[in-house]
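Example for tutorial group B:
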């Protein structure tokens, strides 16, 4: 519904008295009304104005109500249409409803009934508009494949990913669970010559061997009990695009042999078939384990490892790029606020400090869960400590000390390192840093001066 003005209704009726009466009724209800005496005039009005509801007479010379309805359904299907007629028959009512009319009113009608039907139609219009806008926002966010980072190491990794994307070589992405391996694989795909092709993902540890073979390679009719027809596998589904094999080291050795053959020969055998099928697919594999160590342990074939591991991209855990935590937190805040239609816009300094101090064994996925939970619980515009898990503050206590220290550090040096960390977290903003530290700005200035930290 039009959010800047009152609802705008279009009335179409070739009877002047009926048109005048309806216009008077709905203007008294506070609606903006445009009245047209023919279907042709109504369609012309729709070329220049966005209406929230259309009421049209069914029987009119020239362009009748059914033609108006058909035009609206084809061009602006979200706009409800109410049909009005003095020729009320069951057949015309059924035809109008089948064609997509919101409601059907017969002349003469009671004004109270007309008002109620219009209110209901406008509420449907409002809900349709809100759902459409929300769906668009969610689609925009869910299609976002840019990895959110300001970490220099991550930026170099992303640049490497973009450089090798166009080479069509096999890629292995290594990283802990939740670091964004599939997101990086999508980035490689979208920067490759295969970007217009499909991106298909498969978790190699999710299914047993026979089911995994069926999913990856497909099957022929009669290949096993219940195989009533042939089915293509994920390799064929990814034709011309990219197949992402997550946790590839979890594949049984016998399945690894079949995968190696597909990679080498560029062809596969469906389950129950002897006729090879050619495939043109780029494989991007991922694992949270060290694949070389898996080879040495006899859990992965050496030849498959070398076939896959042309280029390795290693994603650092979130605890090694803490400067990204505030950036990610606010990105996720906007994402979940849009998805849940909430007004949450800010994170309190205390909550941000709690988030920044945590070590995230689940990495970005865990941070995402924290923010999603917080948005769901927050009632106003701010996500606070009370909206985070109560145990979060006691899960990890960060110790600020030099990594290579050979002698105990002094409290003064530890305090200086902590203050510098918070300043970096606040992007140099002294006021914000003071809030995070729980002191006023003057006290922070004094500490900076005492500790010899640049306070310009």
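The residue assignment follows.
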């Amino acid at each position: 519904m039009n959010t800047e003005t009152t609802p705008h209704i279009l009335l179409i009726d070739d009877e002047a008295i009926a048109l005048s009466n309806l216009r008077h009724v709905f203007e008294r209800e506070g609606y903006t009304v445009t009245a047209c005496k023919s279907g042709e005039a109504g369609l012309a009005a729709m070329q220049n104005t966005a209406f929230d509801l259309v009421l049209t007479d069914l029987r009119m010379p020239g362009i009748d109500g059914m033609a108006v309805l058909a035009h609206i359904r084809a061009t602006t299907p979200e706009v409800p249409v109410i049909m009005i007629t003095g020729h009320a028959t069951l057949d015309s009512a059924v035809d109008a409803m089948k064609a997509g009319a919101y409601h059907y009113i017969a002349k003469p009608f009671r004004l109270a009934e007309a008002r109620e039907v219009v209110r209901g139609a406008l509420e449907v219009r409002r809900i349709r508009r809100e759902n459409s806008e929300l769906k668009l926002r969610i689609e925009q966010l869910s299609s976002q494949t840019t990895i959110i980072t300001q970490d220099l190491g991550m930026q170099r990794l992303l640049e490497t990913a973009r450089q090798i994307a166009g080479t069509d070589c096999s890629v292995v992405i290594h990283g802990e669970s939740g670091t964004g391996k599939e997101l990086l694989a999508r980035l490689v795909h979208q920067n490759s010559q295969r970007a217009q092709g499909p991106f298909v993902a498969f978790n190699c540890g999710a299914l047993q061997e026979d089911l995994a073979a069926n999913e990856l390679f497909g099957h022929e009719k009669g290949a096993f009990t219940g195989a009533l027809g042939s089915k293509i596998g994920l390799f064929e589904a990814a034709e011309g695009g990219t197949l992402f094999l997550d946790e590839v080291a979890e594949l049984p050795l016998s399945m690894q042999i079949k995968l190696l053959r597909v990679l080498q020969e560029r062809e596969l055998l469906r389950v129950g078939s002897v006729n090879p099928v050619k495939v043109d697919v780029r494989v991007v594999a991922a694992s949270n384990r060290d694949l070389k160590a898996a080879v040495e342990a006899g859990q992965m074939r050496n030849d498959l490892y070398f076939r896959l591991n042309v280029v390795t991209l290693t994603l650092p855990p979130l605890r090694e790029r803490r400067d990204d935590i505030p950036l990610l937190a606010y990105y996720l805040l906007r994402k979940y606020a849009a998805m849940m239609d909430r007004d949450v816009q800010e994170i309190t300094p205390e909550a941000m400090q709690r988030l920044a101090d945590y070590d995230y064994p689940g990495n970005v996925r865990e941070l995402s869960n924290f923010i999603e939970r917080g948005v769901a619980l927050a009632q106003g515009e701010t996500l606070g400590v009370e909206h985070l898990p109560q145990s979060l503050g006691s899960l990890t206590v960060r110790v600020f000390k030099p990594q290579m220290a050979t002698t105990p550090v002094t409290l003064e040096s530890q305090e200086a390192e902590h203050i510098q960390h918070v300043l970096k977290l606040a992007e140099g903003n002294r006021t914000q840093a003071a809030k995070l530290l729980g002191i006023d700005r003057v006290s922070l200035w004094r500490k900076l001066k005492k500790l010899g930290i640049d306070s310009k």
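Residues 111-142 form the longest helix (32 residues). Compare this with the pattern of hydrophobic and polar residues in the output above.
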